[in-house]
Amino acid sequence: MTTEKLAKITKAGLVMERGIMSFAIWVDYEDGSSQCVGGYALDAYSKIKQTRVGTEYGCEIIRRLLTELGVNDFHEMVDKKVWVIIDSDRDVIGIRSLFVDSGNRSKGVMFKQIGDEYFGCDYDNG
Q1: Which of 15, 50, 102, 118 sits 20 to 30 Å CA-CA off 63?
Q2: pTM here?
Q3: Pair 29, 90: CB distance under 8 Å
């Protein structure tokens, strides 16, 4: 079972931490608490190239987040209101724009679901 919490984005961007590219979206919840959403690796290690390389998953997550929130870059997400989707273990599994902002009834950007679509790729082939 999932729940949704209303939140306002206070900061968003792509980040490099210890050589791993990820995204971070900081939110303030209606109840007064705050959280950083994201942290999923958008790249992967290639044994052949012996370095980290971009992935289809990473590009797709970025593309879907920008599309869902109707922005051209992550910095434009600031002040957007979103639903943060939380699973029964209280883990954030996605975010969704508000209908009043987007005009569509999206199911949101579901991080694990997108991962399931792309993690079968073999990033060691090039």
Answers
A1: 50
A2: 0.87
A3: no
Looking up tokens 């306002």, which residue turns up? 8
User: Domain limits of the chain?
Assistant: 3-118
Structure confidence at residue 57 as a pLDDT band (50, 70, 90):
very high
Q: For 23, list phi and psi in degrees, rounded to 5.
A: -120, 155
Provide the pLDDT for residue 99: 85
The two three-digit tokens of residue 85, written as one number? 């989707």
